[in-house]
Amino acid sequence: MKITLDNRDLEHVHIDTYQMLTGDSFDESEIEYQCEELKNDKLTHDDFEWEYDHKQIVEDFAKASINIVLQGIRHETGGDCITAIEYVSSTSPTYYNYTTDGYIMTVTVDTKKINKYIDANHAAIIVIAGKYDASVMDGIISAKNMQHAAVCHIINTAITADDYNMAMWELESEIYRENTTMTLIEKVTA
Fold it and tell me: What is the pTM of this model?
């Protein structure tokens, strides 16, 4: 069975390129490298023309995030309920901050195992389901919504904010390096 999931449904799983994954450390590192290569320690960010493929950066962060999630759930209770996670798409706003960068994934679950997991963790999963399904207040909730909430519970339980953030920071420079071009601006002197 496949469940479509937005990473923003999860507690610690994000690809925020506005405040956290800004590429600043990559930029600083590249400027330092160019200063050494060109034997000019006066170069600054403004001495270069920067081109970022932001759409690809967001997609690469989404795919890296999925790999971190898969590694995180591998040895956790309920992790065996999830058999695969696939990237579907990513979104990034055009005219406001990138804190709302996000992605959609398809999570493949073993139906029998996820239903057993729901039975064992019913109270906690109902709380999560209530965030996404107003009918929970009426005591009615679909099996599909319970399975969605169970997947969120498995991932939220398996991955701490610190572990997730550290893993993303380790990948940040590589992702920016693959999707950024910097060119020294030749200054014309009179």
Answer: 0.87
